[in-house]
């Protein structure tokens, strides 16, 4: 294998590592930010329009339960999205020469 071919393989490998690290950072941010945002938006009534068309607007005593349920649903959506994205990435199989 020539030196330039080895350098091209290492460049694509380092690009792949950066892409994976970027995806991990994005999903880490999403799994931290989206559930809390959904929880507080729901708790303070900003999502009452959504509740009106689905479950009905919760009372003040039950609003925290619906907010927590909504945050749990958001976490599961983010996790499912991450898993789907991870399994849809191409897999590189390196063939080793028999020596």
Automatic annotation (TrEMBL):
One of its GO terms (cellular component) is cytoplasmic vesicle. Keywords: Cytoplasmic vesicle, Endoplasmic reticulum, Membrane, Transmembrane, Transmembrane helix. The chain crosses the membrane at residues 20-44, 64-88. GO terms for biological process: vacuolar proton-transporting V-type ATPase complex assembly. InterPro entries: Vma21 (IPR019013). It comes from the Eukaryota. This is Uncharacterized protein. It comes from Chlamydomonas eustigma.
